Amino acid sequence: QVQLVQSGGGLVQAGDSLKLSCAASETSFSNYVVGWFRQAPGKEREFVGAINRNSAGTYYADSAKGRFAISRDDAKNTAYLQIDSLKPEDTAVYYCAASDRTMGLTIKTSALYPYWGQGTQVTVSS
Question: What pLDDT, on the 0 to 100 scale, is given for residue 56?
Answer without folding.
Answer: 87
